[in-house]
Amino acid sequence: MTYAIAEAAHRTGLSIDTLRYYERIELVDPPARDSGGRRAYSDEDLAWLGFLTRLRTTGMPIKLMREYARLRHQGIASAGQRKRILERHREDVRARIEELRSCLGALDYKIDNYERVIGSDHIQEASA
């Protein structure tokens, strides 16, 4: 099955401009063209775009995504290099998750504190 650029954008959650940008910076191969010369994205294209979106969501820099995409074209010969990129990035993601957990703990503490303060204000108001 193939998808026009608008449908590909809708299905991936990316904008049309982002799809064109990813093509321009060689994160994605130029998609096939239909008889009218319009981009025709395949299910495989959408799967790759989904993976790129996950990499971006995890904070992988575009430069590293481009390196991964370049290596992908080399097939199995670059599997070890691609694995190492993902392993290093996984460590970065894990560190970020721990950082966010710490931040969440600070937020929880402050919210709990406000709940105690607000709760004691309500008790004082009721007894007055």
Features:
MerR_fam, DNA-binding transcription factor activity, DNA-binding, 5 helices, 72% helix, DNA binding, DNA-bd_dom_put_sf, mainly alpha, Multidrug-efflux Transporter Regulator, Chain: A, Domain 2, 128 residues, elongated
What can you tell me about this protein's structure?
By secondary structure, this protein is mainly α. The protein folds into two domains: about 1-75, Multidrug-efflux Transporter Regulator, Chain: A, Domain 2, CATH 1.10.1660.10; about 85-128. The chain is built from five helices and three strands; from the N terminus they run βααββααα. A three-stranded antiparallel β-sheet has the order 1-3-2. α4 packs antiparallel against α5 (about 80-125). The protein is elongated and about 75 Å long.
Largest sheet: 3 strands, antiparallel
User: CATH class of the largest domain, please?
Assistant: Mainly Alpha
Mean pLDDT: 93
Q: How many structural domains does the protein architecture include?
A: 2
Number of helix segments? 5
Helix % is over 70%
- What is the terminal separation in angstroms? 71 Å
Report the count of strand segments.
3
Q: Order of SSEs, N→C?
A: EHHEEHHH
Overall geometric form: elongated
What is the gyration radius calculated from CA atoms? Answer: 23 Å
Strand content: 5-15%
Fold-level CATH name of the largest domain: Multidrug-efflux Transporter Regulator, Chain: A, Domain 2
Class from helix and strand fractions: mainly alpha
- In the CATH hierarchy, the architecture of the largest domain is Orthogonal Bundle
Which consecutive residue ranges, at least 5 long each, have pLDDT under 50? none
Protein name: DNA-binding transcriptional MerR regulator
Domain HTH merR-type: 2-71
Pfam families: MerR_1
Keywords: DNA-binding
